[in-house]
Design goal:
This protein is mainly alpha-helical. The chain contains 6 helices and 2 strands, in the order H-H-H-E-E-H-H-H. The protein has helices at residues 6-21, 28-35, 39-51, 76-83, 106-123, 127-130, and strands spanning 55-58, 64-67. Strands 1-2 form a two-stranded antiparallel ribbon. The chain starts with 5 loop residues before the first helix and ends with a helix.
Length: 131
């Protein structure tokens, strides 16, 4: 199991590139080589970020994408939530539905604590930190 999937990795790389570029807009064509991903795949990722309000899409000549927020206001957790869904470590390790021991399960409570700390850590990592 990977904690961060490739979409999140590529998105973080693209946003770091945009933050460093210091341009009003950055095209997918300009980003694809430095980010290390094919244009069509990166475009899909950027469109998801646009729908989530993390970037703005600018159409027409000179268009591309622009950060919708300052880099210090875009967190790794936001990218994870948008591109792979909420991180959840706390499903039953035995693959069961909610069982009769759910409320008293010691393992579930331990994992819940780890999940809380992990989410706090990734929420503290910003695009500014990575740039």
């Amino acid at each position: 199991m990977k904690l961060i999937n490739r979409d999140v990795d590529y998105a973080a790389r693209a946003l770091v590139f945009m933050a460093r570029a210091n341009k009003p807009t950055v095209s997918v064509a300009l980003m694809q080589d430095p980010v290390g991903v094919a244009g069509p795949f990166l475009r899909k990722i950027m469109q998801k970020l646009h729908k989530a309000g993390i970037v703005h899409a600018v159409k027409g000549k000179g268009g591309g994408f622009a950060l919708a927020r300052n880099p210090e206001n875009i967190t790794l957790r936001q990218l994870v939530d948008v591109l792979q869904g909420r991180l959840k470590l706390n499903d039953c390790v035995f693959g069961q539905k909610i069982c009769q021991h759910h409320a008293a399960c010691i393992l579930r409570h331990k994992i819940a604590g780890m999940e809380t700390r992990l989410l706090a850590e990734i929420d503290g990592v910003t695009i500014k930190d990575l740039a």
